[in-house]
From TrEMBL:
<dbReference type="InterPro" id="IPR002181">
    <property type="entry name" value="Fibrinogen_a/b/g_C_dom"/>
</dbReference>
<feature type="domain" description="Laminin G">
    <location>
        <begin position="763"/>
        <end position="928"/>
    </location>
</feature>
<dbReference type="InterPro" id="IPR008979">
    <property type="entry name" value="Galactose-bd-like_sf"/>
</dbReference>
<feature type="disulfide bond">
    <location>
        <begin position="901"/>
        <end position="928"/>
    </location>
</feature>
<dbReference type="InterPro" id="IPR050372">
    <property type="entry name" value="Neurexin-related_CASP"/>
</dbReference>
<keyword id="KW-0245">EGF-like domain</keyword>
<keyword id="KW-0732">Signal</keyword>
<dbReference type="InterPro" id="IPR001791">
    <property type="entry name" value="Laminin_G"/>
</dbReference>
<dbReference type="Pfam" id="PF02210">
    <property type="entry name" value="Laminin_G_2"/>
</dbReference>
<protein>
    <submittedName>
        <fullName>Contactin associated protein family member 5</fullName>
    </submittedName>
</protein>
<keyword id="KW-1015">Disulfide bond</keyword>
<keyword id="KW-1133">Transmembrane helix</keyword>
<feature type="transmembrane region" description="Helical">
    <location>
        <begin position="1187"/>
        <end position="1209"/>
    </location>
</feature>
<dbReference type="InterPro" id="IPR000742">
    <property type="entry name" value="EGF"/>
</dbReference>
<keyword id="KW-0812">Transmembrane</keyword>
<keyword id="KW-0677">Repeat</keyword>
<dbReference type="GO" id="GO:0016020">
    <property type="term" value="C:membrane"/>
</dbReference>
Amino acid sequence: MFCFPDNCNGPLASALPHSSFQSSSQSSASHSAFYAKLSRRDEAGGWSPMVTDQDPWLQVDLREQMEVTSVATQGRYDSSDWVSSYLLLYSDTGHIWKQYRHEDGFDGNVNSETVVQNKLPHPLKARFLRFVPLDWNPSGWMGLRVEVFGCSYKSYVADFDGRSSLLYRFNQKSMSTVKDVISLRFKSHQAEGVLLHGEGQRGDYITLELHHGRLDLYLNLGEFASLPLTPTGSNLILNLLDDQHWHSAHIERFNRQVNLTVDSHTQHFQTSGEGQSLEVDYELSFGGIPLPGKPGTFLRKNFHGCIENLYYNGINIIDLAKRRKPQIHSVGNVTFSCSPPQLVACTFLSSSSSFLSLPSAASPTGEFTVRFQFRTWNPDGLLLSVQLNPSPQKLELQISNCWLHLTLHSLGRQRSDVSAGEVNDGLWHTVSLTSRSLQITLSVDGEPSSNIELWELVESRDNFYFGGCPPTECHNQAPAFQGCMQLISINDHLVNLSHVQQGLLGNYNELQFDTCNMKDRCLPNLCEHGARCSQTWSFFSCDCSGTGYSGATCHNSIYESSCETYKLSGSSSGFYFIDPDGSGPLGPTQVYCNMTEKKVWTVLPHNNTTPVKVQNSSPQKPHIMKFSYNASADQLRAIVSRSEQCQQEVVYNCRKSRLFNTKDGSPLSWWLDRDGDKRSYWGGFLPGVQQCSCSLEENCMDMNYFCNCDADIDTWTNDTGILSYKDHLPVSQIVIGDTNRTGSQAVYHVGSLRCYGDKSIWNAASFYQESSYLYFPTLQAELASDISFYFKTSSPSGVFLENQGLKDFIRVELSSPTAVTFSFDVGNGPAVLSVKSHLPLNDRQWHYVRAERNVKEASLQVDQLPLRLLEAPADGHLRLRLSSQLFVGGTASQQRGFLGCIRSLMVNGLTFDLEERAKLTPGVSSGCPGYCSGSSNLCHNRGRCIEKSNGYICDCSQSAYGGATCNQEVSVSFDRESSVTYTFQEPFSVMQNRTSQATSAFTESRAREDVAFSFVTSQRPAMLLTVSTFSQQYITTILARNGSLQIWYHLQTDRSPDVFSPVPRNLADGRLHRIRIHRVGRNLYQFVFSPLNPVSAGMESFDEEVVKAASKGFVGCLSSVQFNHVAPLKAALTNRGSSLITIRGPLVQSNCGALAESTSHILQGKTCRHRQTHRDTRNRNNSKSKIVSLLTVVFIAVCALAVISRLLYQQRRAKRSSSIKEEHRHSSTYTDYRTELHLHNSVRDNVKEYYI
């Protein structure tokens, strides 16, 4: 019988005897643990530990296993002693403890009398509870009175010894089910073991097993599926399930839909196979597979541990087994009580000061043997150190870069041997170290041993140091071990860790006994969009490779949300990936963006865009064609929804083939909309009207019919129309049913889905009263949120948006005429990020704001100003708990409201409809007045529209184009003597600056890097772009001897250069080629380019082919050069007198870029990855100026080639020492080179465009 939460809230501690309360210490007899019952006032009125107690705790023994739903605390009666926060540990035996995962502790008391009750989000089942104070009244001391609430718990338990199992045999030969519910709790002694298994002759199977300490479910339905379901452990990362504590598993299946819940974390998925039912033959086995080698099984070890309350479709399996019912057959030794675990672990808490010192047991021969088990997440740490005789010699066993190293240090000599790798996987590893004769032997996990040969006999002296070493004894620079150890034995004597804790044996520092208190920081997986989570003891990191997202938690899409936004960023027609819901769950999809017309069209083709001929179809046996698009149904819905208008052309050519029956008007042919609903209207008419476009236009060939084809003549005619009702698009299927008569034929064609406009970009509201605001539902932003919008105002300050909770809040505001502030509180105290501009932001022009907060960091971006970052505190509160409505343009207090316009407000990928809400709100109007507030593209190619009193002008300063509307290309012809040097005196806009509060050792990229240029040349080889540093690192883009485009990067001086060749064909063909390089890196660092020497000098460190290309220079034309918001080539033409620009040789303005008219096709590119170790750096704040040179068209601004600029900075960072937090050394950095080559055929057929 199970207790429901509503009935499971009775007090459990108030009636317990004196012996049920224990503590680490007590300040006096009147402060003992027994007086710690809630509301008790006798004696001292509560428990208080000794002032010298370094690890205080209060323990409650509930006398039997109970279900606990909440706990309550008070301070000590009538005193200034109370606990303000605490941890809750639980245990079945009182020896092996586990922390209840409620973030990082429970809120306690603020005075001595008020009762603070904390309801557990998920009830726990345990006999022992331990309250561990974390913080207390700074003006007093710890004082505690407690109560535990819950109810009794009925337990049916079975103990499996690793060679046993229970078989549940069916009444019939096989059991076929469309719905299954399986639940159990388990406690395992091993990392491997089968919990349940069943299979059928047609290929069905179900297996639930522990594998590497994780829980994997394999489930397959139907004979046609040969591959197993991917183990859910690869997605639902549930490590450490072999920790000798109870864990719950719950499986629900209906047809192919499956929910797997493990310890309150749920994964949803679909099964493999073609069937809907699970067919299992004869029996289900629990605890193991009794007959090894059966076909279709995933044979692992049998389960070793306890299983409790095992239910299969409502049947209590253990109860049946205990009562020896005939349906249950027992294999091996299955008992019905759970034997207590014998292993006791200890936890090493600190990477700098933890150690365990144990005396070396005497050995008559001087030989020694040490054995122990350990588990850790960290890639580095000292496991064991011992001084040897004859002195001075020392033996060290340590983890270094994930590998286990055994090193013997001797005077003037050193021998080391690498024994094993990847031991930081969180699993238990067994180590055996033996010194015998002239050999030291190391064995790990029973693998073949590794040996160190000795020059003389050695013996241990003094103590063995495990996990670290006190500073007075060792001078090791390696970090101490953080993790767990158990089963420590020295010379075959098992160490009693309880004696160590009691001070009877050895010595220790920063250790926790009776528990392996390792946190699984990847549970739940806070990496978004399917990113892989990896972890160390103190933090986790996310690998965003291949996800299409970037950032600390892979929250931000690297793609634009629509073709319209690509157009606004200066892109031209081509295939692009768009992410219609930004940071939302949908993911990116590829579309074609047609930007040749005034409207920007998004085109999504399907699998059958060619005409299809149909014959011999009837209403009873119709012709059916299904259309599949390169996007999911949800992605299609999102694209259509945010577009202003969508349409799809349908052409029906007919010969004696009707669309509607002339007798009753019922349709003979129809189509299905995106939801699969039947539609019989054809282009031009609203839903429900069974007519064709010729009827609407009144030009049908026979006006007695509503469609041309319904005239049913023996000659070819057609009905063509445009479907434009957005809620029904796109067409998912077409059905043709009237081509079975003599001479009857039809040829139909369904065009691509075409949409234009982006409603979110110009969705705006104007606020003209300080007390006015728009309100929306509460932000769903517990773990991550991003907020972006544009604003323009003349007001000096005002709140853009605010959402509050009981204590938590989030707010974005214009705090002064030159500053935007992002502030929030998740329980760690207010966090504030501010971006300040050197120019006013209340200038009545549009400004962009993007604020993001996740569990690792927060960021704020304003226009092109440097990004501000703030790292989240280690082990702080994670969840932002909001309860009020979201206020936009004001606050709940109706004070400090915003006056001006806000547009394109998006939160977590969802667009807020400001215009619709403004229609119903006083003091707010829909839209925003002004020439630059509409969707018409008045300024092109990144040109910025500037409002004037009597019109507008286009600011082309951040565009590579010129002219009144930024649409005239800027081109320059070069000869061998020509060069341009452009010097940046301020950091690039893509660089990262931090707030004063930030102390992060790593930062994440929040900016996009774009390089675009066109060139014409017949020369090969030729130097196009290059960048180099004083440290002989360089990045170069050249045309090779065969005319192919190559990108060279030489970032590690001890290695050969790496070459990336995205375009293998000859580009030195005298035609115009347009290159665009686009990168969004996961991390963005502040990088510094040193001034460059001319290419003719200082080329000693360059590769021979690069030197050859440089010596040839460049003869040709370069056009429309853009690096992010900088256009250096245009600046060289328009600001020749500037001190930032140096021109050598003739520089002649040209018109080679006039050929650049784009249309058409794509050549899918490549993805290149480069991995580097993320190391500490120094001289971070070097303020050297940045030099960008075009030397014989060596154009350095472009040479910070978006695909590699981050790598250059990382390589420079590798030279700094230890100024950054040590724990961040462990993460490796991956850089994605996402390459898409777009070859656009121009009208003249002599322009080629490449999008890299």
